[in-house]
Amino acid sequence: PSTSFEMAMALRVGAARMAASVRLAAPTRALATAPDAQSGLVSPGIQLYGLEGRYAHALFSAASKNNALGQVEKELTAVQGSLKADASFAGFLESPVLNSAERVDSVNKIMGAWKMSETTKNFFVTLAENNRLAKAGGVITSFQQLMSASRNEVICTVTSAEALNSTTQNSLKKSLSAFAPGQEINFDYVVDPEIIGGVIVELGADKYIDMSTRSKVNKLVKELSAPI
Predict the structure, then answer these.
(1) Residue 79: its pLDDT value, please?
(2) Closest CA to 159 of 190, 193, 197
(3) What pTM was computed for the model?
């Protein structure tokens, strides 16, 4: 974008409120994520909560008003890939050592090198200024949920101890489609050996089904350790 943008992000954590601003909208326009300012945001059709949700809503609204939703989604997906593939980048986001100025300077250099848009770059600057870079992964996931909702899609993450074969995947798709009538379900399959067996299903932002062996074992251990 050729114009500068300004976004005010008011974040409430418990009883505390902190404000953060980033140039994501025109200088005369303020955009807030505080509960009392939600009506000023562009709605994707669902409401997410928590710190990650508020950041994601603010970014969605800013990108929408800037006609940059597709571009920002693509850029965040690239950042997400780097988080998974580049240990040094992930370590930088998690680092508690750098001060605010150092975090902002590093983010500007990284985003510049990756040729990210002003919307995405300045959003990550906001995370850096408020020591929230470690939350970037969660914000990206929340933003993806908002994008899916805006397209009448829903994300379904299926976690299993080992990769599922196509027959099992198709069976799950058929069974889970009933939980999201009229919506297109985008499936994401994750392998986590620590769940031992079974599956964990996360459908959208409000449905969670844990059918893992780990969950069953933990429940059994809890019951056995309870006083008689």
Answers:
(1) 96
(2) 190
(3) 0.66
